[in-house]
Amino acid sequence: MTALPRIAWTERSGAGQRLVLVVDLRLIGSLATGAILIATPSLAAPLGRLSSPFALLVTLPSLALALEAFGWRDRLAPRLAAIGPPLVRLLSTYVVWLVTSAVTTLDVAAVAAASVGIAAAGDHDEARRWQLGGAILGANVGSLLFPFSNLTNLILVSATGISLAAYVGLAVWPQLAAAIAVGVLFAGRARRPIALGAADTHAPPTVATVAAEPVRSNAAGRIAGGVAVASAVAAVAVGLAGGDMAVPFAVSAGLLGAAAVGTGRLDVRALVRSVPIGGLAIIAVAAASTGPIDLAAGLLPRPDASLGGLALSVAVGSVLAAVANNLPAAAFGAMWLARAQPACIVAFLIGTNVAALATPHGSIATSLARAVGARQGVVTPNRVYLGSAWRYASAGAIAATVALALATR
After folding, report:
1. Distance (Å, rounded) from C-alpha 124 to C-alpha 117?
2. Phi/psi-derived region of residue 334, left when phi > 0, alpha when psi is between -120 and 50, beta in every other case
3. Which residues does the chain have with pLDDT short of 70?
4. Phi and psi at residue 160, to the nearest 5°
5. Is the dihedral of CA 163, 148, 331, 384 positive or negative?
6. For residue 289, how far is the Cα from the chain centroid?
7. pLDDT of residue 8
8. Using one digit for the tens of pLDDT, what is the confidence trace for 203-220?
9. Positive or negative CA dihedral for 23, 29, 35, 38?
10. Would you list the domain boundaries of the chain?
């Protein structure tokens, strides 16, 4: 009889020790997560002008996962899922991602759009694939309007000294033309697959399907969303002031990531897996190639604002972004177009922002969105992507170039 309480006490003591150990490990993981994410911009500083994109590649996926863990995606997705038929919903979300990209940043729009769009499609596999495509298109195409809409814009605007008014006055027409051209093509190509997919499934996406997913604390979701919005506003302000836009996002990612890990909503391993290693490798190679990039920029004749000069600017930006990536292309453009006319800057950005859609690695935002899709089971092989994306890249770039040429006449 006396042995039973002793055994029970031993078992309870062991369970308590295990609980303390789990809590301690979670606390350590939470503090380490926050510290590393917040310090990422400083750790990336040796990469020079490419330190910001490197830091964003590390912090933005973590920020997106933390927001999902606090239920932010589950709050927004049902509202989008309630929009009309599947095609209307698809085009509506495309417009939302365009606006989000323009007023925040391209990369934030990409990670948020991919996650929310896929959730809004519910169980509908075909709709999920098209929603991921719409997220990629909307984020990239919408990134031309303001200097802060894309890191490539900031790199060139800061290097050339164009005023905000002068830039927006030139960029607004190509931005509208590209958004409309890509949207029309997207609607035309999606209409039949979406309709057939809806007819073939017995469980089309509905508000109930999306809303059936578990939703965590509304208060926590509101606070997390507020922190993310504040970081986006701060990043815009910092970017316009000539600072590092990655710092506010790193701080918010560190705070929300640490909180999510500390409360057991998120596993550290998920954060590590979310980082796109391929994108980091591209940035590292570009940073190591700064010397050759600058040398090549000095050898190429600078364009003027004639039709031929605008076409040359678009072509160079397009080829560099499609072959390498839009951030190394922007580094090249900052040297090549240092004393060029503003129209040439916008033309070059048409190539790096819109034509970069042609390849899976042409834009960091594309890599981020595809990584989000892969985590949620929506995988687009490179061969399939290449076979489709060139249409949107061509349509958007041509429409934007024509609009820019007309605006400068």
Report:
1. 12
2. alpha
3. 1-24, 49, 195-218, 278-279
4. -105, -15
5. negative
6. 24
7. 43
8. 444 443 444 444 444 677
9. negative
10. 31-407
